[in-house]
Specification:
It contains one helix and 13 strands; from the N terminus they run H-E-E-E-E-E-E-E-E-E-E-E-E-E. The protein is mainly beta and about 160 residues long. The longest helix has 16 residues.
Length: about 160
Amino acid sequence: MKNFLILLMFFTFNKLISQEIVGMKEVYIDNNLVYKSSNDELLTGIAQSKRKNGHLVYEEEYKNGVILSSNLYYNGKEIRVSNKTIYNPNKPLVLSKEIKYHLNGEVFETITYNDNGIKILVEQFKNGKLTYSCQYLGKKKNGLELGYGESGENGLATKKWTLS
């Protein structure tokens, strides 16, 4: 009985931490939800796009058919993310945040969106430090635009934008 319980716990735990990985051609979208073509079930796992040589190009992570995030990868021998997009888990396909990376893995820009997927903030970084920040309302600057010096001090450039 003890061995049975241990096996049951192992398989339950394994199911909780493992994610199914499928190809992008093995899924379809219906009503903003992603389904596995093989059995028409909502996808919980990862859908990937790879080149013929096996190089990972792009992947999306899903939970119950709702996209959580996507990664675009640099073309190279190592697997390195160039762009990461995080989606609003309560509103399928609505952007929450975009993160852009240098080849060395360092973040150089983030774009933040409100709950409706409207751009509200752009930040840029150099050597891990914030160098630029600008508030937006959609495609137009709206609010403070700040530039930062090498040591992080504010005031390199400051503007106040308002939509009229």
